[in-house]
Structure formats: structure tokens, C-alpha cells
Amino acid sequence: MTAPADRMPVLYLSHGAPPLADDPVWTGELAAWSRDLPRPSSILVVSAHWESAPLAVGATRTVPLTYDFWGFPEHYYQVTYPAPGAPELARDVAALLDRPGQPVHQDADRGLDHGAYVPLVEMFPAADIPVLQVSMPTLDPRGLFEVGRRLAPLRDQGVLIMGSGFTTHNLSLATFGDTSNAGPAWGQEFDHWAKEAVESGDIDAILDFEHRAPAARIAHPRTEHWAPLYVSLGATADDWQHSETTVDGFWYGLSKRSFQLN
């Protein structure tokens, strides 16, 4: 199937902790990436940091951010991102996802968490594009893949669907403060596998990564930072043409590889 020329791509990005915003390499990579994207009509974010069942949509008006981290210097809690709300997008999401026994919940006061706003500050710093965040109602690969597939029509409305996680995420083995771009052997093995699997469109392998990928249990002791990729894959499944790496390398020993799916 050939996708319409104006259909928006879909992203999966490694968002990092708040201090990643201080890294000039990463921030430059995200800024360059966004310059090459069509301007979205709105942005729909699925973040590793919001698991809630039934599936919920966040605030549809500008509300304070959700600072869902602890123990960082005060200036990280002073970051703002007053993007417009996206009530029309929320209605469209509900129409696409609401099913008997699978209602879409409204969490009217939940602001964007750091999985959403940290990359958005770098990619769309003017904060002038409406943003909506939705929760992950499950970590089941097929369930999230189906969520993405149902959301796919939004791409034809100019909506940028963004899955925000981290390609490897084992904080117990992170080398905090290491910005040398070096990764441990297990991280390099998983990162290489992830690149090959995503860029070749091997959906079955990605959904079953715990059994297919090298060092899978080390790279992801829990799968919530990999899981947003399932939504991104689902949103391109019916007309996938190609995927490409947009950001690579390591930060604090973790793979920050990110992808654009078309």
C-alpha cells in the first residue's frame, strides 16, 4: 500500500531523564530532527511514564506539567511547556479507541510528564502546537500495537504520533555522568539488534523482543520504556514503507537510539 504524500510519519524516541536536556549533542539532534519534519497540526504522545487502565487522555487545556521525578536540582522543576490543549484530538482519539468494555477515560487535570515535555521542549520550543498525552492501558505488546493501529487515521489529519521511551533502560546499570557516548557490551548488542529489527520492519521480532533480542532482560528489566514502540509500530503497520534511525549513541551508558517510521 502506498501512503498519501501528506501522511505524517510516526516517531519513537528515547526521551531521557531531565538532565538529558543539558546535553548539547542530544538537544541538537532533536532540534535537527524536528526541522526535517512536516509541521504537525497537533501532537499525540504515548510516554513510558503514564500507565493507566482503562486508557486515558490527559488534559485538553494548558495545565501545569507533571514533574514525575525526584531528587533533582530545583531548576528542573521550573521548566514549563505551555502548549495549547487539543480537545478536538481528544474527541477523535476517544472515537477511534472507545469500545464496549474498553472505555476511554478522561483525566482532565493531568499535565504532560517528562517523557512528553522533555523532548518537546527541544523539538518544538515555541510550544505553539496542541499536545495531547494518552496513557498505556497495558504493557501487552499486541494490545498496544492494536492501539497504534486504531490511531493510524490521525496521521492523515496532520497528527504527529510520538512514542516516548528509551531503547535501553536499566537504571541499576547506568553509568551516571558518563557522556562519552560509550555503551556496555550488553547495551551495544541490544542497540544493534533494535536498529536491525526496526529498520527492517520485523514487527514479530520487536513484539517478542524478550525472547528474540540479545540481552533483552538486561536492557529492559521492565518493559515500559520499550512499550511505546509498539504503539508507533501499530500506527504504521498497514502502510509501512521504511524506518530510519534519527538519533543514535549512548548517554549514561544507555542507548538513546530513536526512529522515524514512515
Task: Describe it.
The protein is an alpha/beta fold and 262 residues long. It is built from nine helices and ten strands. It has helices at 24-35, 87-97, 114-123, 141-151, 185-199, 203-207, 209-212, 216-219, 228-236; strands spanning 10-14, 42-51, 56-57, 105-106, 131-136, 159-165, 243-247, 250-251, 254-255, 258-261. The strands form three sheets. Strands 5-2-6-1-10-7 form a six-stranded mixed beta sheet, sandwiched between helices. A two-stranded parallel ribbon has the order 3-4. A two-stranded antiparallel ribbon has the order 8-9. It is globular. The two termini are 12 Å apart. The model has no long low-confidence stretch (mean pLDDT 95).
Provide mean pLDDT, rounded.
95
Apparent shape: globular
Strand order across the largest sheet: 5-2-6-1-10-7
Q: Which residues sit in consecutive blocks of at least 5 with pLDDT less than 50? A: none
DSSP, total strands: 10
Instruction: Please count the helical segments.
Output: 9
**End-to-end separation:** 12 Å
Helix- and strand-based class?
alpha/beta
Approximately how much helix is present in the residues? 25-40%
Rounded radius of gyration (Å): 17 Å
Largest sheet: 6 strands, mixed
The H/E string reads: EHEEHEHEHEHHHHHEEEE
- The share of residues in extended strands comes to 15-25%
